[in-house]
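User: Can you predict the 3D structure for this chain?
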Amino acid sequence: MERFVAIFAPKPERSPIAPPIRSAISRAEALSVMIDRDDMLVASGGGQVRHLGDDIGMVIGPIFATGKSDPATPPSDVASSGDPSDLHRFSQDYWGNFVAILRDRAAGFHVLRSAFGRLPCFHAVQGDQLILASDMALLSLGGWKSRGVEWSAILRRLALRDIPSPSTCLIGVKELRGGSRLDLTPEG
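Assistant: Here is the predicted structure, written as structure tokens:
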């Protein structure tokens, strides 16, 4: 199964991605750094990756055009405007088991998780940075520091077992649910 970790630093001049974290990710077994910029670091391993360019982003996991069964590569202008209608169109035009990490011209970032995909996408804020990962070990590798257990979330999970929620049982960690989008502006 695909694995990934991504770190976004919307203001790298004020809060850069720490060199020890960059180094740990680059040395991690079974991960390859795909994008390494001042404001974005993305590494993945174990699956299909569509690198759309450092200025555009990437799609992790298999992606297909709606109504097709052959793998697809989205066009390079897929999220360039950052317009929500373009991102909604992306969700309508493609299906698969993917997480798309896209950049727009305004230096914002967008993360889309396919509606029925099984590739997890957890996210947490650490300082001025947003960390995304497919699992907790990679979230930690990306610099996330555990703040403990969210006991109310455990109760909610036990009581509402079949009702999905973006909350997790860890303080400060959320899951990007299937069919959802996360937007990060240059302001954070």
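The first strand starts at residue 3 and ends at 8. Residues 9 and 129 are 5 Å apart (CA to CA).
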